[in-house]
Amino acid sequence: MANYESESEYEDANDIEKYAHTSEKFLRYKKSTLELRSPKLKDIHCEYYYLENQNVKKFCKQIKTYGSNLKIDINHVEKLYIDLLQDQEPYFVNHIAIVEYNQYEVDNIENLLEVIDGHHRILALQKLFENDPNFKISIWIRLHYSDHPESQLTRKLFRKYNSLKPFIVDINVSEISSDIIQALNKKFSDGVYIPIKDDKYVRRPSICKSNINNVIQKQLEKLKKNEKLNIDLDINKIIEKFAHYNTLFSSKPIEWFNDNLNEFNDREISSNMYKIANTNKFYLGLIDLDVLVKKCIF
Asked: Where are the domains of the chain?
């Protein structure tokens, strides 16, 4: 279900270093990704960066593309790829938009820069560079600034860019899912341990934000299709259900989690995972998210 790093290696939550947008490590990453010390242009809303050829390749390789704001349409990526491949002078008429979070601390510097608009173009370019490492193209990057991923300012940016897409971006479902995830982190975080992480790879019992977002959105879309989703959805009651199951799981021995006949079973749980779950009083990352979400959101 989730993306995990080596299950034999774990870090104590207190030892994980945090980074902000002023951190030296992030500033080096930003400079490398955008290949400039300063923007080509700027206005009151954003900054503009111009990249060519190998710098485009580096940008597409380094920028975070696994955000949860929209679903990737593989057919659209393939169409863009073919169009670029067949174009004598490949060029995007629109810029790629990204956002930098300036009031946000993370344990992965990539999470301080996120794509707002251009996910499909970046994936198409990645495919092009895989097939032709010397592919030539230039792009414009528009960099916005916001406080953190869940803020109203950030949502406004995503809404502005994604309201005219040729593919479906369901803002309502996306925002409800975001609210649920934010509430879950608030409920189960002790200020040090973060249960749902905005990383591509996480160590259990933490949960990958992108994964749980996909599962929640899938369930919300099912409810919407059956006309069971409305604006009066009580997120507090949903969080209470998650908390109920977390309390229920807290009394279970490790053998229960590893029982293949258990409907909540999701891969084998190591003694170290179980120990970390007990230490942080968070057990939801040890079980099948699909089953859990269906029991909590209905």
From this structure: 8-168, 170-298
